[in-house]
Amino acid sequence: MTPLKVLFVDDEQQILDGLRRMLRHKARDWDMDFAISGARALEVLAEHPVDVLVTDMRMPEMDGGRLLEEVVRRHPRVARVVLSGHSGQDMAAQAARSAHLFLSKPCPPETLIEALDRFIWMREIAADGPLLEVITGLERLPVLPDAYRTVAAELTKEDPSLDVVAAAVSRDVGMSAKVLQLVNSSFFGFYRTIDSVRQAVTLLGVNTVRHLVLALHLFDAYDPAALRNYSLAKLWQHSLRTAGIARAIAEAETGGKPPTPQHLADVFFAGLLHDVGKLVLASNLGPQYQEIIDALAAKDAASAHCGGVAAEELRRFGASHAEVGAYLMGLWGMDREVVEAIARHHRPELPAEGYSMAAAVAVANHLDHDLTILTPGRAHPTLDAALVRRVGGEERLAAWRAAAEAQIGNKNAV
Known about the structure:
The chain is an alpha/beta fold. It has helices at 13-22, 38-47, 64-74, 88-98, 109-125, 129-136, 146-155, 162-170, 173-183, 197-204, 206-221, 232-252, 261-272, 276-284, 286-297, 301-304, 308-317, 321-331, 336-343, 357-373, 385-391, 394-410; strands at residues 4-9, 30-35, 52-55, 79-84, 101-104. Helix 4 links the parallel strand 4 and strand 5. The N and C termini lie far apart (45 Å).
């Protein structure tokens, strides 16, 4: 495998020397270069290809914000990571516009290594060049909420504090209300009312709360007026149902052995976030994306769902919402299996035969369209024959459909 090419930029030589020493054991996996200024970084980028740029923000002459803007303009395929201390509101706003990932100093070595190692396997998702062109060229990337950053940082500790996590979520009144609304819905199946964020964190776990905060924030951050004839409420309902069906499929595939709570939570959130790339593309490519919506609205319902949008995205942009959403989720720390499930929910090539998280989400997405969205009595698209073979044939698919029907019949959308 080709080493990941990483360029570190900082105006303090001792920091660059420290990074060089700290990361020397990664020399087999990473091809590293170090630049003492933004100007030198641009020279390095002009001399040879770089996969990932990691830059400080506070630097003389050319600060990190200006460097990022130049990299976006000159080298849009380079993934952009900020590694910086407190940088002020203006610089933070610049980073939010131009960086794919923000890491705070002091950054534990394992956190930095894990973040950059993700780019190695994420290159598999972005194997087709057009995806990198799309994702690195986006001007308005969603900004991670403060609560998510706090929870993610807490997860790096050996003993995460539930009180710290609950306090971080509770500081955002709107977010805490949405968390409690969803936790008390039938999708989580608790048999008593959860009336505090602290209770929710205790029952769900820190990692699940992190995923939940991210999902709620991404949907809340999108402007529903950005596109005509496109209902954010319907997309949220579809995503919730898909999440519930995917989890029901996972529960039906136990073979006598109960799935772990973490696996069920991951399946649920892969389903909940499977279409998040649509929000990202719509926010950045408004008029062009509107053309896709209008073209599909003129066709029948079957064309507008079950892969019709993804196929049209691929034709026009060279990448679909599935890969775009997966790439961003990978950047932001989602587990590889979750990212793969999001990336492959419209593709029959799955990472394994039989049950997998990717298979559960792909089939759940199709079944929700088939059972709740498309017009009864009309011919509905069938699942790709290759996908049916991969999941184990029509008999297993029938069992999954039964699990989906029971899920939809027993649950009410939020």
